[in-house]
Design goal:
InterPro entries: DUF3397 (IPR024515). This is DUF3397 domain-containing protein. Keywords: Membrane, Transmembrane, Transmembrane helix. It holds the Pfam family DUF3397. This protein is mainly alpha-helical. It has one domain. It contains 5 helices and no strands. Helix 3 crosses helix 5. The longest helix has 29 residues. It is globular.
Length: 132
């Protein structure tokens, strides 16, 4: 059982290092299956966000010399969900948890994609704090 867990962790780490690979794989497989470009793009975004979470969290940890990168991202996601939930309550009088989750998950994709490019560029240009 331990070797299965280690294999899953290694596979996740390899795919998270280059999140473009799972994005393209999911996009082309879903586009082939359904023929719908919009649905394929959304599904690819949703899957890739899980890989970007780990990768951007790890790069934040390396850049600032801490182990709170992933927790900081999750905190921002929770704050965003609270703000969207508050707006929904004010507008409609009730909240739709699935819409909130989907909105935060997809907004996180865009924010983390930008952070990924920025942090990866910094990683290639300048050595991180922990390497000095």
């Amino acid at each position: 059982m331990d070797s299965v867990w280690k294999s899953l962790v290694d596979a996740y780490a390899a795919l998270a290092a280059f999140p473009v690979i799972p994005f393209l794989f999911v996009y082309f497989v879903e586009r082939y299956r359904s023929g719908d470009k919009k649905r394929a793009f959304r599904l690819a975004m949703d899957v890739t966000t899980a890989f970007l979470l780990g990768c951007v969290g790890f790069m934040l940890n390396r850049r600032i010399g801490s182990s709170l990168g992933l927790y900081f991202i999750l905190l921002l996601m929770l704050i965003g969900a609270g703000l969207i939930g508050n707006a929904q309550t004010r507008l409609r009088g009730k909240i739709d948890v699935s819409k909130i989750f989907r909105a935060i998950w997809r907004l996180s994709f865009f924010a983390m994609a930008v952070l990924y490019v920025l942090l990866m560029s910094l990683e290639l240009i300048m050595p991180s704090i922990t390497q000095q």
